[in-house]
Amino acid sequence: MMLHRGWYQAAFLRDLSPGLNEVRIGDLPLAVIVEGDKVRAFDAVCPHRGANLCRGGQWLGDAVRCPFHGLRIALGKGAATGDFVASEWPCLYIGGLVFVRQPDSEDRGLTDRLAQLDATTWFVPGFAIDMAAPAELMIENAFDALHFDVVHGIGNRPRLTRCDDASGAPAVVGEFVVPASPWQQSGGGMRALAVPYRATAYSPTMVISDMGGERPYTVLTATVPTGPRHCTIRLSLMIPGAADGSAPDPAACRYLLDGSRRGLAEDRVIWEAIADDPPFRPVAGDAQVEAFRAFCVAMRP
User: In this structure, is residue 251 part of a structural domain?
Assistant: First the structure.
C-alpha cells in the first residue's frame, strides 16, 4: 500500500498506554512510546529479521529487546556503532492528539499551526470511524465546492478561492450559508447565516477546516489508510473557551461533534458506493479538487 509523504494522525493519546504501543500507518507498524508527557515514534520492524518489535518486545528505555532473537534494537540516533537501530519518525503530541511524519517529508507548517491553536483554543479530541473509501477522498471533500449543497444541504453552492498557506500547504476560502443553530445563533431573527470557511491540507491525509462567524471553531480531520479502499478517520475540534477563560461547554462540544458525525454519515452514502478507479472529467467548480489532487501526486514517494 502506497503511503504519501507527510503527516498522519497516528492515535488519540487516550488510546495509548504508558510504554510501548503499536500503531499502523497503512501496512507499516510503528512503535509509539509514551513516557510521561513525552511521545516518540519509531519503525517497529526489526532490522535483523523483520519481527514486529511491539508484539512481545521489551522496552528498555533507549532500546527494545526484540521478541524473536532477543537482540537489542536501539531507538533512534545516538546508538553505538554496530547496533541495530529502529529509525525515529518525527512525532507531535498536542491536545490529546498524536501525529507522526515520515522522516523524509516536510512539516508544511502543521507544527506552528497547532501551536497557534493550542494558545487560543481548547482541543477536544473527538472520535474515530472506519470508512470503506480511499483515505485521500475524505480530505479532498474539503476542497469540493460542488458537493456541499447537494450532499449536506447548505443554503448555497460556495465559491472556493485558492489561498495557499505560506508554508505551501494548499488552502481555500469561501462562505457557507447555514441555518441558525444552537451554535451559530442568529441574534437578528434570521433563519440562515453566512459563515466564513477556510480549509488547509497539511498532507494528503489531513485537513484543518476553520468555520468563522460570531462563534468560530476549527475541525481537524485526519485519515490513515487501512486497505486499498479503506481508512480510519479521526476527527477533533478546537474551540475557543468561555469568556472567563474556562473550558467550552461540554454540551456544545457534543453538539458540534454530533454534527460532524452526521456530515460523515451523509458522505458515507456516496463514498462507499463510488466505483473502483472512478473517472474524473472536471467541470466548472472543480478547480480546487484538481489542485488538491496535484498536491497528492507531488506528495507521493
Answer: yes
Same domain, 66 and 201: no
169 and 226 belong to one structural domain: yes
The whole-chain average pLDDT of the chain stands at: 92
Residue ranges of alpha helices (H) inside the chain are 110-120, 135-140, 148-152, 250-271, 287-298
> Which strand ranges, in their side-by-side order, compose the sheet holding 192-203?
122-131, 230-239, 217-227, 206-211, 192-203, 171-179, 161-162
| pLDDT one-digit tens code per residue, 119-140 | 999 999 999 999 999 999 999 9
CA distance 245 to 240: 9
pTM of the model: 0.94
- 127 closest CA partner among 21, 12, 38: 12
User: What 8-state DSSP symbol labels residue 275?
Assistant: P
Cβ 190 vs Cβ 180: under 8 Å: yes
Residues 6 or more apart from 151 whose CB is under 8 A from it? Answer: 266, 267, 270
